[in-house]
Amino acid sequence: MYAKNRMPMYEGDGYIHAGPAAGSAANPPVQRPEHASETRNLEQQARRMRGEVVAELLGNLIAWLQRKAAESRSAALDDYLSHSTSLADIERRLREIERNGSFLPG
Hints:
It is built from 2 helices and no strands.
């Protein structure tokens, strides 16, 4: 039988051991605010900071989506103009796009 599958022979031979006692040097006691107002202030500060981080992340996401949309439109326009057969055809396509005010690939 493998060593990892064997049964413990005595109490201290198991995998689960007692941890250090609470308040000892290895496990210091948890510091808690003395007043409820301190706790409330910390929670408000944490909410505000979380809101700022979420707002910044959403702003970055929106900017990235706008860049990707602009790159997509630019690539579609370049592809449309690249299928021109002559300089006159390019100019005709550009005038058509300028008259419509927008370009919808298709």
